[in-house]
From TrEMBL:
Keywords: Ribonucleoprotein, Ribosomal protein, RNA-binding, rRNA-binding. It comes from the Archaea. This is 50S ribosomal protein L6. InterPro entries: Ribosomal_uL6-like, Ribosomal_uL6-like_a/b-dom_sf, Ribosomal_uL6_a/b-dom, Ribosomal_uL6_CS2. GO terms for molecular function: rRNA binding; structural constituent of ribosome. One of its GO terms (cellular component) is cytosolic large ribosomal subunit. PROSITE patterns: RIBOSOMAL_L6_2. It comes from Candidatus Iainarchaeum sp. Residues 96-169 form the Large ribosomal subunit protein uL6 alpha-beta domain. One of its GO terms (biological process) is cytoplasmic translation.
Amino acid sequence: MNALVEKVVELPKEIEMDVKRNRVKMKLHGKEIERKFKVKHISIEKKDSSVLIKADSDKKSVLSIMNTISSDLDNMANGLKFGYECKAEIVYSHFPMNIAVKDVVVEINNLAGAKQAKKAQIVGLTTVQVKGKEITIKGPDKQAVGQTAANLEQATKIKNKDVRVFQDGIYIISKPKLVMQAADGEKSA
């Protein structure tokens, strides 16, 4: 592939990285994230502690995909080093919802008085914690954390009712953001 445009993404040296074709695998502290980039005109190579992204075209669409891959690689490295966190809130007016986390599924009981339990899938290495009316979703993969939060929100949608009246459900109150751990143990974002 004759590269017309190249972009280098610098990654921390402590992250173990493996690149095969357009599949990137990163490891740190026993956590592993793997992502496959199926894109024409772009190739990905490992170069020391960095990743080289090459494109054989300088079209705007190809360059934007290159930048997206670059951002994805940065997010993967930051997620392994620090982690991502997302918050959701349980909202109900009359029937209190019961939420239970079971392996890779979150079970939602008594949504608007329904007898049938709703289920939401937990994606990847994501963990879900429920404290009172607040749900905290944490994990090293930003996309998996966001998808788990979206699964919770989608599972509690009430269909065929007026959404202005029936507002019971789980709602995302903060999108996935990087959790920096300070030296004294305090969180900051």
